[in-house]
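Work Package 3 (structural annotation) set out to generate three-dimensional models for the target panel prioritized at the project kickoff. During this period the team completed the workflow that converts sequence records into discrete structure tokens, so that structures can be stored uniformly alongside our sequence database. As a representative example, we reproduce one entry of 152 residues exactly as it appears in the project archive.
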Amino acid sequence: MTQGPAPRPLDDETLSDLLGKQQFGTLATVKRSGHPHLTTMLYSWDAEARIVRFSTTADRIKVQHLRRNPQAALHVQGGDVWSFAVAEGEAEVSGITTVRGDAVGRELLGMIPKAAKPEDEEAFLEQLVAERRVVIRLKVDRLYGTALNIKG
């Protein structure tokens, strides 16, 4: 069997750019058993603060996992099947948005790309309260990933 090209590590700037270009990734939290719990999530990357933000509801199992053990990772596929980025760190879960337009609700609203902003922000903020939304903030202390130089 022939050996193909070795994966090359991606530098921090390239990894950050990759996180910024994607919208979906796989969030890994730690179950009580120690096994990983994986969930495909829409996310928002703040490169300057090195924080990945996720919107979810307070009753989700991932929230329970993170409250017990804040260690988490986000895996994001690159623009092809040969590259990826992983953001690791400790996550914190916000309080539940309880009043239309409170700080958590505004943070959730701020995570939405400009092109997808709701026409009726007040109704959207009210919906976040009804859904008992929270923000998961993954404070990234390590980025890593690789790419292969393969065509096709």
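The CA atoms of residues 26 and 34 lie 17 Å apart.
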